[in-house]
Input
Amino acid sequence: QVQLVESGGGLVQPGGSLRLSCAASRSIFSFVAMGWYRQAPGKQRELVASISSSSTTNYADSVKDRFIISRDNAKNTIYLQMNVLKPEDTADYYCEAQSYGTAYWGKGTLVTVSS
Output
C-alpha cells in the first residue's frame, strides 16, 4: 500500500514562510505526477501546485510567485515552500500522488496563517 505522510504544518504570521514535506513509501518517479491540494472550511478542495515526473510544474493563480513545489527523488519526497503567507492560505494541505488509474492521498497537515 502506498503511504503519503505530510509534515511541516503549523501556525505562522502573515508574511511568514513555511515548508511542507510529503514523504512517499515508494519511488516518486513511478508516479505520473504529485501535488499539493488544500481545503478550507466550507470550501472545495483545490489544487495548489503540482509537479510531474518530468519536473513540469503548475500553480494555482492565487499562489504563483509565492509558493514553490519541488521534489527529491532520492528521499521519495516532495516539498511545498510557502512564502509571503496570507490569512487566506489557511487550510488543510494534502499531498496527492497520481498513478495510472488511481490517486493516493495523505492525511493532511494544517496550516494556519494568523497574527
